[in-house]
Write a sequence for this structure.
């Protein structure tokens, strides 16, 4: 992606760490959580690869086409999975955004996807709006509300499966924090497109 090197490397580190945590979440005994974590791991590592500063390693045009194809396929898979879960709609939008960025960079990587000087394209603007709202919404879900979010053993955030404890890979607040960080990274990547 286009942009300064230091923030680019921070974005790479954030997305790679998020992808690694999502890989650990794939060990969950809950089937739906494993599937969601797999999609989020793909997004995290894909975003890390796309965020490498162009001044360091400018990928060839065919690499952007590979990104567009991989994430286009992930978007179709998320569309199929969205039949049973509303959370997969977010995966669909995220995969579409990644495919869109890959396609835009493949079309014209040297001219900021062919819209330099012409303002923000409608699709980019819509995706920026979606992810900005998503970041605000998911960030507000991390803030504890006194009297509403309990801290006792009956709290849903602290619920334990029968006969076991919740591992740090199964904690919902960590999964939400990862989703928040990927949303912030998506906003940053869309801004540099």
């Amino acid at each position: 992606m286009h942009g300064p090197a230091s923030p680019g490397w921070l974005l790479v580190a954030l997305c790679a760490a998020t992808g690694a945590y999502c890989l650990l979440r794939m060990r969950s005994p809950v089937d739906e959580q494993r599937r969601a974590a797999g999609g989020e791991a793909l997004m995290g590592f894909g975003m890390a690869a796309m965020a490498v500063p162009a001044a360091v390693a400018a990928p060839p045009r065919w690499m952007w086409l590979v990104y567009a194809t991989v994430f286009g396929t992930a978007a179709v898979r998320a569309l199929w999975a969205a039949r049973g879960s509303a959370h997969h709609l977010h995966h669909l939008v995220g995969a579409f955004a990644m495919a869109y960025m890959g396609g835009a960079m493949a079309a014209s990587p040297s001219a900021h996807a062919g819209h330099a000087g012409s303002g923000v394209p409608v699709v980019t603007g819509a995706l920026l709006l979606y992810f900005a709202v998503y970041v605000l919404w998911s960030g507000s879900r991390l803030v504890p509300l006194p009297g509403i979010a309990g801290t006792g053993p009956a709290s849903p955030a602290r619920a334990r499966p029968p006969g076991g404890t919740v591992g740090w890979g199964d904690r919902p607040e960590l999964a939400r924090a990862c989703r928040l960080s990927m949303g912030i990274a998506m906003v940053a990547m869309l801004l540099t497109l």
